[in-house]
Structures are given as C-alpha cells and as structure tokens.
Amino acid sequence: MSRSVHHFIHSQVSAERRGREPGAPGRTCRMKSVPAISLLLCIAVMAQMPATKTYSSDNFGFELAYPASYRKTHLPSRIAQWAFYRGARSLLYVSSGTGQETGSIHVLLDKRRFTEANVQSNYAHTGWEKPQEVRVGKNMFYYYGPGGGGVSYPDDYFYNLTGQILVISFDGPYEPIGARSPSEKTKLIESKVLESLRLLKTATNE
C-alpha cells in the first residue's frame, strides 16, 4: 500500500475517533461518513491515479498534463530537423525509458492555418491519406496513426489552437519490437494527456 493511501486511511479513522467529519479540506476524498465500500472505492481511485506534471504556456494559451515518469530531455537532432523543415516550434519534449523501451511525448506549434488540407499535406504518414477526426473528452483532434510499409509510426494528434496547428506526438515504445504503432500502455497515456488539454484565458502567441 502506498504511503499516500496509508495516510488517507489513518486520517479518516482518526477523524471518526475525534467525532469530526472525515475528509477535511486538503483530503482527496470528502464524505460525511466512510462506509467500508466507499473507502475501498476511494482507495482504488487513489492507487490507480498516476503522478503527473503540467506543462503550461501563457504565451500560447494552453496547458496539459503528462506522466511524471517522463523527463524533459534534449530534442534529438532528427526530430529537431523534422520540426524545422515543417516550420514548427518545439514547445515540450519529454521521454521515458531507454533503448528500445523509450517512449516520448513531443508538443509543437505549427503557425500555419489549422485546416484539414494543411494537416494532410504536411503530416500525413504515407503522404496522401486524410487524417481521422477523434474526440478525447471535450477536445477534438485530427489523428494519424499506423502507416504502411511495415514501418513504426508515432501517434500524432492535431488540435486547433486559436487557428494554428498544435501537434502532440506520442512516439513509442513499440511492443513487440517492430510494431507499427505505440504500445497499449502508451495509448492509455495518450487519452489522459489529450483529455487534460485545456485553453487558458490569456494568449500572446509570441
């Protein structure tokens, strides 16, 4: 049992003994009483909730969360060149793991106008196919996934950020090795990151 879960249980029991309402401000779960089933459900939620960090940009007016296990690293030269030739600005690059177990999340801003045609002409994995439309939570994205030719492709999502193209790319790990798309674990991370994306009130677009 994790330390945070153990601390929560202890706080609830102590509160009951002192005769005050458990789940005081600052606790993860608030309830007037803590029946066994409710306590177990709360513990389950806490145990499954991964630690996250937040990337926030007042300049561009958005923020999103990503797993704390992903660390900021130098942008690999091949990815830097890829972004440069597309005229995109790298905002965040984080990675986790080493070697063939490496996974990365890359957030870029392409200041070209957000249209299906621009996304297709600049980011289609095989050069011609249209992107899919996908909804994650309240957010709508264009999406490119597995391509052809037996090559591994990242999962690339494109969001309309005040008329410009926000690119969020999930690259690996690929399991088994040689798979055409990132692992199922990465797919779960994708949904959490994309759902966390939200707009801020102030954006200077510098």
Q: Tally of extended strands?
A: 10
Q: Which sheet architecture does the biggest sheet show?
A: 7 strands, antiparallel
What oligomeric state is this? Answer: single chain
Shape verdict: globular
CATH fold description of the largest domain: Protein Transport Mog1p, Chain A
Give the total of domains: 2
Alpha-beta classification: alpha+beta
Which regions have little confidence, pLDDT < 50, spanning 5+ residues?
1-34, 38-47
Q: Approximately what portion of the residues adopt beta-strand conformation?
A: 25-35%
**Individual helix count:** 5
Q: What's the overall average pLDDT, rounded?
A: 80
Q: What is the CA–CA distance across the termini?
A: 46 Å
Provide the succession of SSEs: HHEEEHEEHEEEEHE
Helix content: 25-40%
Strand order of the largest sheet: 3-4-5-9-8-7-6
Key features of this structure:
206 residues, alpha+beta, Protein Transport Mog1p, Chain A, 2 domains, 7-stranded antiparallel β-sheet, 3-stranded antiparallel β-sheet, 5 helices, 10 strands, 30% strand, disordered N terminus
Describe the structure.
Helices cover 29% and strands 30% of the residues. The protein is α+β, with helices and mostly antiparallel strands and 206 residues long. The chain folds into two domains: 3-48, no CATH class; 52-199, 3-Layer(aba) Sandwich (Protein Transport Mog1p, Chain A), CATH 3.40.1000.10. It has a seven-stranded antiparallel β-sheet with strand order 3-4-5-9-8-7-6, sandwiched between helices. A three-stranded antiparallel β-sheet has the order 1-2-10. β1 (52-57) and β2 form a beta hairpin.
